[in-house]
Design goal:
12% of the residues lie in helices and 43% in strands. It has six helices and 40 strands. The protein has a 15-stranded parallel sheet that branches. The longest helix is centred in the N-terminal third of the chain and has 30 residues. It is globular, with a radius of gyration of 29 Å.
Length: 428
Protein backbone atom coordinates (compact mmCIF):
# COMPACT_ATOMS: atom_id res chain seq x y z
CA UNK A 1 0.00 0.00 0.00
CA UNK A 2 2.82 2.37 0.88
CA UNK A 3 4.47 1.57 -2.43
CA UNK A 4 1.34 2.48 -4.37
CA UNK A 5 0.94 5.81 -2.52
CA UNK A 6 4.59 6.62 -3.01
CA UNK A 7 4.30 5.94 -6.73
CA UNK A 8 1.24 8.20 -7.07
CA UNK A 9 2.98 10.95 -5.10
CA UNK A 10 6.04 10.73 -7.31
CA UNK A 11 3.90 10.90 -10.45
CA UNK A 12 2.08 13.96 -9.09
CA UNK A 13 5.29 15.76 -8.21
CA UNK A 14 6.69 15.02 -11.67
CA UNK A 15 3.63 16.50 -13.38
CA UNK A 16 3.73 19.63 -11.20
CA UNK A 17 7.43 20.05 -11.90
CA UNK A 18 6.91 19.81 -15.64
CA UNK A 19 4.11 22.36 -15.44
CA UNK A 20 6.24 24.82 -13.48
CA UNK A 21 9.12 24.43 -15.92
CA UNK A 22 6.80 25.19 -18.84
CA UNK A 23 5.43 28.26 -17.07
CA UNK A 24 8.97 29.48 -16.42
CA UNK A 25 9.96 28.96 -20.05
CA UNK A 26 6.92 30.84 -21.35
CA UNK A 27 7.53 33.70 -18.92
CA UNK A 28 11.16 33.84 -19.98
CA UNK A 29 10.23 34.02 -23.64
CA UNK A 30 7.73 36.80 -22.96
CA UNK A 31 9.70 38.89 -20.50
CA UNK A 32 13.31 38.34 -21.48
CA UNK A 33 13.25 38.84 -25.23
CA UNK A 34 16.69 40.23 -26.04
CA UNK A 35 15.35 41.57 -29.34
CA UNK A 36 12.72 43.83 -27.74
CA UNK A 37 13.62 47.55 -28.05
CA UNK A 38 13.17 50.02 -25.19
CA UNK A 39 10.31 52.45 -25.67
CA UNK A 40 10.76 56.22 -25.31
CA UNK A 41 8.57 59.34 -25.28
CA UNK A 42 9.06 62.46 -27.39
CA UNK A 43 7.57 65.73 -26.09
CA UNK A 44 7.36 68.55 -28.63
CA UNK A 45 6.57 72.19 -27.87
CA UNK A 46 5.83 74.64 -30.70
CA UNK A 47 6.13 78.31 -29.76
CA UNK A 48 3.68 80.88 -31.03
CA UNK A 49 4.13 81.59 -34.73
CA UNK A 50 4.20 78.10 -36.17
CA UNK A 51 3.37 74.41 -35.97
CA UNK A 52 5.28 71.13 -36.06
CA UNK A 53 4.53 67.89 -37.89
CA UNK A 54 6.24 64.78 -36.51
CA UNK A 55 6.17 61.60 -38.61
CA UNK A 56 7.29 58.02 -37.97
CA UNK A 57 5.90 54.62 -38.96
CA UNK A 58 3.70 56.48 -41.49
CA UNK A 59 1.82 58.23 -38.68
CA UNK A 60 1.68 62.04 -38.43
CA UNK A 61 1.27 64.12 -35.30
CA UNK A 62 0.64 67.87 -35.64
CA UNK A 63 1.45 70.26 -32.80
CA UNK A 64 -0.16 73.69 -33.23
CA UNK A 65 1.20 77.13 -32.26
CA UNK A 66 1.84 77.46 -28.53
CA UNK A 67 0.95 73.81 -27.94
CA UNK A 68 2.76 70.85 -26.35
CA UNK A 69 2.22 67.19 -27.15
CA UNK A 70 3.89 63.96 -26.08
CA UNK A 71 4.24 61.03 -28.48
CA UNK A 72 4.60 57.88 -26.39
CA UNK A 73 6.18 54.45 -26.83
CA UNK A 74 8.60 55.09 -29.68
CA UNK A 75 11.06 52.24 -30.19
CA UNK A 76 14.72 52.95 -29.56
CA UNK A 77 16.59 53.92 -32.73
CA UNK A 78 13.46 55.16 -34.50
CA UNK A 79 14.04 58.19 -36.70
CA UNK A 80 11.26 60.76 -36.36
CA UNK A 81 10.90 63.28 -39.19
CA UNK A 82 10.28 66.83 -37.97
CA UNK A 83 8.89 69.67 -40.08
CA UNK A 84 8.45 73.15 -38.57
CA UNK A 85 6.01 75.34 -40.49
CA UNK A 86 5.97 79.08 -39.65
CA UNK A 87 2.85 81.18 -39.95
CA UNK A 88 2.70 84.36 -42.03
CA UNK A 89 5.20 87.05 -40.86
CA UNK A 90 7.04 84.49 -38.71
CA UNK A 91 10.24 82.59 -39.35
CA UNK A 92 11.58 79.35 -37.94
CA UNK A 93 14.69 79.96 -35.81
CA UNK A 94 15.97 76.67 -34.37
CA UNK A 95 15.27 73.56 -32.31
CA UNK A 96 16.21 73.68 -28.64
CA UNK A 97 16.04 71.24 -25.73
CA UNK A 98 17.30 67.66 -26.06
CA UNK A 99 18.77 68.23 -29.49
CA UNK A 100 21.79 65.91 -29.35
CA UNK A 101 20.44 63.56 -32.04
CA UNK A 102 18.72 66.16 -34.23
CA UNK A 103 20.38 66.16 -37.66
CA UNK A 104 20.38 69.97 -38.03
CA UNK A 105 19.07 72.17 -35.20
CA UNK A 106 18.81 75.16 -37.56
CA UNK A 107 16.80 73.42 -40.27
CA UNK A 108 13.00 73.61 -40.35
CA UNK A 109 12.91 70.12 -41.87
CA UNK A 110 15.11 67.64 -40.02
CA UNK A 111 15.15 64.34 -38.08
CA UNK A 112 15.57 63.22 -34.49
CA UNK A 113 16.79 59.73 -33.56
CA UNK A 114 15.18 58.29 -30.43
CA UNK A 115 17.85 56.98 -28.08
CA UNK A 116 16.14 58.18 -24.88
CA UNK A 117 13.12 60.16 -23.74
CA UNK A 118 13.43 63.65 -25.23
CA UNK A 119 11.79 67.05 -24.94
CA UNK A 120 12.33 69.56 -27.75
CA UNK A 121 11.06 73.00 -28.76
CA UNK A 122 10.50 74.48 -32.21
CA UNK A 123 11.25 78.20 -31.92
CA UNK A 124 9.47 80.68 -34.17
CA UNK A 125 9.88 84.46 -34.22
CA UNK A 126 8.47 87.54 -35.94
CA UNK A 127 10.55 88.52 -38.95
CA UNK A 128 12.57 91.75 -38.98
CA UNK A 129 13.17 93.05 -42.50
CA UNK A 130 13.78 96.79 -42.07
CA UNK A 131 14.33 99.52 -39.47
CA UNK A 132 10.62 99.99 -38.94
CA UNK A 133 10.24 96.31 -38.03
CA UNK A 134 13.12 96.68 -35.58
CA UNK A 135 11.61 99.82 -34.10
CA UNK A 136 8.27 98.03 -33.66
CA UNK A 137 9.83 95.60 -31.16
CA UNK A 138 9.11 98.21 -28.48
CA UNK A 139 5.39 97.56 -29.01
CA UNK A 140 5.81 94.01 -27.63
CA UNK A 141 8.93 93.82 -25.49
CA UNK A 142 8.29 90.21 -24.53
CA UNK A 143 8.06 88.83 -28.06
CA UNK A 144 10.44 86.75 -30.16
CA UNK A 145 12.10 88.27 -33.22
CA UNK A 146 14.47 87.12 -35.95
CA UNK A 147 16.56 89.26 -38.27
CA UNK A 148 16.08 88.28 -41.92
CA UNK A 149 18.78 90.42 -43.58
CA UNK A 150 21.39 93.05 -42.84
CA UNK A 151 20.13 96.49 -41.81
CA UNK A 152 22.25 99.44 -43.02
CA UNK A 153 21.89 103.11 -43.89
CA UNK A 154 20.26 102.27 -47.22
CA UNK A 155 17.61 100.04 -45.63
CA UNK A 156 14.06 101.45 -45.49
CA UNK A 157 13.20 103.88 -42.67
CA UNK A 158 16.83 104.58 -41.72
CA UNK A 159 16.64 108.37 -42.12
CA UNK A 160 13.58 108.89 -39.91
CA UNK A 161 14.49 106.36 -37.23
CA UNK A 162 18.28 105.95 -37.02
CA UNK A 163 20.24 108.70 -38.75
CA UNK A 164 21.89 111.77 -37.22
CA UNK A 165 18.75 113.77 -38.09
CA UNK A 166 16.29 111.32 -36.50
CA UNK A 167 14.52 112.25 -33.27
CA UNK A 168 15.83 115.83 -33.22
CA UNK A 169 19.42 114.73 -33.69
CA UNK A 170 19.34 112.03 -30.99
CA UNK A 171 19.22 109.22 -33.53
CA UNK A 172 17.97 105.77 -32.59
CA UNK A 173 15.75 105.38 -29.53
CA UNK A 174 17.07 102.39 -27.53
CA UNK A 175 14.71 99.42 -27.18
CA UNK A 176 13.64 98.90 -23.56
CA UNK A 177 14.45 100.73 -20.32
CA UNK A 178 14.36 100.03 -16.58
CA UNK A 179 10.62 100.74 -16.49
CA UNK A 180 9.77 98.68 -19.57
CA UNK A 181 12.67 96.32 -20.32
CA UNK A 182 13.07 93.98 -23.24
CA UNK A 183 12.33 90.46 -21.96
CA UNK A 184 11.88 88.66 -25.27
CA UNK A 185 14.25 86.91 -27.65
CA UNK A 186 16.17 88.51 -30.50
CA UNK A 187 17.80 86.09 -32.94
CA UNK A 188 20.24 87.81 -35.29
CA UNK A 189 20.77 84.65 -37.37
CA UNK A 190 24.26 85.87 -38.30
CA UNK A 191 23.10 89.13 -39.90
CA UNK A 192 24.48 92.59 -39.14
CA UNK A 193 22.94 95.86 -38.00
CA UNK A 194 25.05 98.67 -39.45
CA UNK A 195 25.41 102.44 -39.16
CA UNK A 196 23.56 102.78 -35.85
CA UNK A 197 23.64 106.38 -34.60
CA UNK A 198 22.75 107.39 -31.03
CA UNK A 199 23.56 110.79 -29.49
CA UNK A 200 21.99 110.91 -26.02
CA UNK A 201 24.78 112.21 -23.72
CA UNK A 202 22.39 112.97 -20.85
CA UNK A 203 20.50 109.66 -20.93
CA UNK A 204 21.11 106.30 -19.20
CA UNK A 205 20.68 102.78 -20.61
CA UNK A 206 21.84 103.59 -24.09
CA UNK A 207 22.56 101.12 -26.90
CA UNK A 208 20.66 99.34 -29.65
CA UNK A 209 18.82 97.80 -26.69
CA UNK A 210 18.60 100.03 -23.62
CA UNK A 211 17.73 97.44 -20.96
CA UNK A 212 17.46 93.67 -21.40
CA UNK A 213 15.93 91.90 -18.39
CA UNK A 214 15.41 88.21 -17.59
CA UNK A 215 14.59 86.09 -19.51
CA UNK A 216 15.68 88.35 -22.36
CA UNK A 217 18.01 86.91 -24.99
CA UNK A 218 20.14 88.58 -27.65
CA UNK A 219 22.13 86.19 -29.81
CA UNK A 220 24.01 85.78 -33.06
CA UNK A 221 23.96 89.39 -34.21
CA UNK A 222 26.64 91.83 -35.32
CA UNK A 223 26.51 95.57 -34.66
CA UNK A 224 28.88 97.26 -37.11
CA UNK A 225 30.04 100.83 -37.64
CA UNK A 226 27.99 102.06 -34.67
CA UNK A 227 28.29 105.54 -33.16
CA UNK A 228 26.80 105.45 -29.66
CA UNK A 229 26.91 108.19 -27.01
CA UNK A 230 25.14 108.16 -23.63
CA UNK A 231 25.67 109.03 -19.97
CA UNK A 232 25.56 105.88 -17.78
CA UNK A 233 25.09 102.19 -18.72
CA UNK A 234 26.20 102.67 -22.30
CA UNK A 235 27.03 99.81 -24.67
CA UNK A 236 27.00 99.34 -28.41
CA UNK A 237 24.57 96.43 -28.33
CA UNK A 238 23.05 96.68 -24.84
CA UNK A 239 23.24 99.48 -22.29
CA UNK A 240 22.10 97.50 -19.24
CA UNK A 241 21.98 93.71 -19.49
CA UNK A 242 20.25 91.44 -16.97
CA UNK A 243 19.57 88.82 -19.63
CA UNK A 244 21.77 86.78 -21.97
CA UNK A 245 23.98 88.12 -24.75
CA UNK A 246 25.77 85.46 -26.79
CA UNK A 247 27.52 84.91 -30.13
CA UNK A 248 27.41 88.63 -30.87
CA UNK A 249 29.85 91.44 -31.68
CA UNK A 250 30.20 95.18 -32.10
CA UNK A 251 32.40 97.58 -34.05
CA UNK A 252 32.50 101.37 -34.20
CA UNK A 253 32.72 103.87 -31.32
CA UNK A 254 30.99 103.94 -27.92
CA UNK A 255 31.31 106.79 -25.42
CA UNK A 256 29.67 107.79 -22.14
CA UNK A 257 30.33 109.16 -18.67
CA UNK A 258 30.49 105.87 -16.73
CA UNK A 259 29.82 102.12 -17.05
CA UNK A 260 30.65 102.12 -20.73
CA UNK A 261 31.52 99.04 -22.79
CA UNK A 262 32.04 98.26 -26.45
CA UNK A 263 29.32 95.59 -26.37
CA UNK A 264 27.53 96.00 -23.01
CA UNK A 265 27.61 98.90 -20.54
CA UNK A 266 26.56 97.09 -17.34
CA UNK A 267 26.37 93.30 -17.39
CA UNK A 268 24.33 91.83 -14.53
CA UNK A 269 23.78 88.40 -16.05
CA UNK A 270 25.60 86.74 -18.97
CA UNK A 271 27.85 87.73 -21.85
CA UNK A 272 29.38 84.76 -23.66
CA UNK A 273 31.03 83.78 -26.95
CA UNK A 274 31.13 87.42 -28.03
CA UNK A 275 33.61 90.14 -28.93
CA UNK A 276 34.03 93.84 -29.59
CA UNK A 277 36.49 95.78 -31.72
CA UNK A 278 34.78 99.08 -30.95
CA UNK A 279 36.75 101.99 -29.61
CA UNK A 280 35.48 102.89 -26.12
CA UNK A 281 36.03 105.97 -24.04
CA UNK A 282 35.10 108.60 -21.53
CA UNK A 283 35.47 108.65 -17.77
CA UNK A 284 34.71 105.86 -15.25
CA UNK A 285 34.33 102.04 -15.45
CA UNK A 286 35.26 101.82 -19.10
CA UNK A 287 35.96 98.45 -20.76
CA UNK A 288 36.58 97.21 -24.28
CA UNK A 289 33.78 94.64 -23.99
CA UNK A 290 31.90 95.43 -20.75
CA UNK A 291 32.10 98.59 -18.68
CA UNK A 292 30.80 97.30 -15.33
CA UNK A 293 30.34 93.60 -14.57
CA UNK A 294 28.40 91.95 -11.75
CA UNK A 295 27.48 88.89 -13.83
CA UNK A 296 29.38 86.39 -15.96
CA UNK A 297 31.65 87.15 -18.90
CA UNK A 298 33.09 84.06 -20.60
CA UNK A 299 34.73 82.96 -23.85
CA UNK A 300 34.87 86.51 -25.15
CA UNK A 301 37.43 89.10 -26.19
CA UNK A 302 37.98 92.74 -27.10
CA UNK A 303 40.52 94.32 -29.43
CA UNK A 304 39.40 97.95 -29.67
CA UNK A 305 41.24 100.88 -28.09
CA UNK A 306 40.01 101.92 -24.64
CA UNK A 307 40.53 105.25 -22.89
CA UNK A 308 39.14 106.80 -19.73
CA UNK A 309 39.95 108.50 -16.46
CA UNK A 310 39.65 105.72 -13.86
CA UNK A 311 38.69 102.05 -13.65
CA UNK A 312 39.77 101.45 -17.22
CA UNK A 313 40.37 97.93 -18.59
CA UNK A 314 41.01 96.37 -21.97
CA UNK A 315 38.13 93.92 -21.46
CA UNK A 316 36.20 95.07 -18.36
CA UNK A 317 36.41 98.40 -16.55
CA UNK A 318 35.07 97.28 -13.16
CA UNK A 319 34.55 93.63 -12.22
CA UNK A 320 32.51 94.10 -9.06
CA UNK A 321 31.32 91.75 -6.29
CA UNK A 322 29.78 88.64 -7.84
CA UNK A 323 31.33 89.33 -11.21
CA UNK A 324 33.23 86.52 -12.95
CA UNK A 325 35.48 86.64 -16.00
CA UNK A 326 36.78 83.40 -17.52
CA UNK A 327 38.48 82.26 -20.73
CA UNK A 328 38.71 85.79 -22.09
CA UNK A 329 41.39 88.10 -23.46
CA UNK A 330 42.00 91.62 -24.68
CA UNK A 331 44.52 93.00 -27.16
CA UNK A 332 43.61 96.65 -27.69
CA UNK A 333 45.49 99.72 -26.46
CA UNK A 334 44.47 100.95 -23.00
CA UNK A 335 45.06 104.47 -21.69
CA UNK A 336 43.81 106.48 -18.73
CA UNK A 337 44.68 108.52 -15.67
CA UNK A 338 43.88 106.49 -12.52
CA UNK A 339 43.50 102.72 -12.00
CA UNK A 340 44.19 101.64 -15.55
CA UNK A 341 44.85 97.97 -16.35
CA UNK A 342 45.51 95.68 -19.28
CA UNK A 343 42.50 93.35 -18.86
CA UNK A 344 40.37 94.45 -15.89
CA UNK A 345 40.52 97.97 -14.47
CA UNK A 346 39.55 97.12 -10.89
CA UNK A 347 38.51 93.72 -9.59
CA UNK A 348 36.41 92.65 -6.62
CA UNK A 349 35.20 89.42 -8.22
CA UNK A 350 36.83 86.47 -9.98
CA UNK A 351 39.08 86.45 -13.04
CA UNK A 352 40.26 83.05 -14.30
CA UNK A 353 42.08 81.66 -17.34
CA UNK A 354 42.20 85.09 -18.96
CA UNK A 355 44.96 87.11 -20.61
CA UNK A 356 45.90 90.44 -22.11
CA UNK A 357 48.59 91.54 -24.55
CA UNK A 358 51.14 93.61 -22.61
CA UNK A 359 52.69 94.98 -25.80
CA UNK A 360 49.66 96.18 -27.74
CA UNK A 361 47.89 97.41 -24.60
CA UNK A 362 51.03 99.19 -23.32
CA UNK A 363 49.88 98.06 -19.86
CA UNK A 364 52.23 95.83 -17.82
CA UNK A 365 49.74 95.28 -14.98
CA UNK A 366 46.09 94.30 -14.49
CA UNK A 367 43.70 93.83 -11.59
CA UNK A 368 43.06 90.33 -12.93
CA UNK A 369 44.33 87.99 -15.62
CA UNK A 370 47.81 87.22 -16.88
CA UNK A 371 49.87 89.42 -19.19
CA UNK A 372 51.54 87.92 -22.24
CA UNK A 373 53.56 89.36 -25.10
CA UNK A 374 52.06 89.26 -28.60
CA UNK A 375 53.93 86.12 -29.65
CA UNK A 376 52.56 84.27 -26.62
CA UNK A 377 49.04 85.52 -27.29
CA UNK A 378 49.30 83.98 -30.75
CA UNK A 379 50.67 80.66 -29.48
CA UNK A 380 48.13 77.89 -28.87
CA UNK A 381 50.23 76.56 -25.98
CA UNK A 382 49.29 79.65 -23.95
CA UNK A 383 45.70 78.41 -23.97
CA UNK A 384 46.23 74.64 -23.77
CA UNK A 385 49.35 73.93 -21.72
CA UNK A 386 48.45 74.13 -18.03
CA UNK A 387 52.15 74.39 -17.23
CA UNK A 388 51.95 77.90 -18.65
CA UNK A 389 51.47 80.81 -16.25
CA UNK A 390 47.87 81.84 -15.70
CA UNK A 391 46.20 78.72 -17.18
CA UNK A 392 44.31 76.52 -14.72
CA UNK A 393 42.19 74.64 -17.26
CA UNK A 394 42.78 74.31 -21.03
CA UNK A 395 40.61 76.36 -23.32
CA UNK A 396 38.31 74.59 -25.76
CA UNK A 397 40.50 75.57 -28.71
CA UNK A 398 42.02 74.00 -31.82
CA UNK A 399 44.65 75.13 -34.31
CA UNK A 400 43.44 75.65 -37.90
CA UNK A 401 44.94 76.81 -41.18
CA UNK A 402 44.43 80.41 -42.25
CA UNK A 403 41.02 80.76 -43.89
CA UNK A 404 39.75 77.51 -42.34
CA UNK A 405 37.25 77.28 -39.50
CA UNK A 406 36.48 74.33 -37.23
CA UNK A 407 33.09 74.96 -35.63
CA UNK A 408 33.26 72.08 -33.14
CA UNK A 409 35.29 73.77 -30.36
CA UNK A 410 34.60 77.20 -28.89
CA UNK A 411 37.84 78.76 -30.15
CA UNK A 412 40.10 78.53 -33.20
CA UNK A 413 43.61 79.89 -33.67
CA UNK A 414 46.07 80.01 -36.55
CA UNK A 415 49.04 79.06 -34.45
CA UNK A 416 51.76 81.69 -34.57
CA UNK A 417 49.72 84.04 -36.78
CA UNK A 418 46.47 85.11 -35.09
CA UNK A 419 44.97 85.69 -31.70
CA UNK A 420 42.28 83.16 -30.71
CA UNK A 421 38.99 83.75 -32.50
CA UNK A 422 35.54 82.32 -31.89
CA UNK A 423 34.70 79.33 -34.06
CA UNK A 424 31.57 80.98 -35.47
CA UNK A 425 33.64 83.88 -36.84
CA UNK A 426 34.81 84.20 -40.41
CA UNK A 427 38.53 84.96 -40.34
CA UNK A 428 40.74 85.24 -43.43
Amino acid sequence: MKAILSSRKHHYVKRVSIFLIMVALIAGMMGCDDDASPLYDLTIYSTLGGSVTATFDEEETVIGPGKTQTISDISAGTVVALVAEPQEDYGFVKWTGDVGTITNVNAASTNITMNATYSITANFALEIWDWYDLHAIRDNLGGSYCLMNDLVSTTANYTELVSATANDGKGWQPIGNSTNPFTGSFYGQGYEIGDLFINRPEEDEVGLFGFVDEPGLIENVGLVNATVTGYEYVGGLVGNNDGIVSNSYSTGRVTGYKRVGGLVGWNQHTVSNSYSTAGVGRTRSVGGLVGYNTGTVSNSYSSGSVSGFWYVGGLVGTNHWGGTVSNCYSSGSVTGETIVSGLVGINYGSVENSFWDTQTSTQPESAGGTGKITAEMQNIATFTDTEMEGLDEPWDIIAVALGVTNTTPTWNIVDGQTYPFLSWESVS
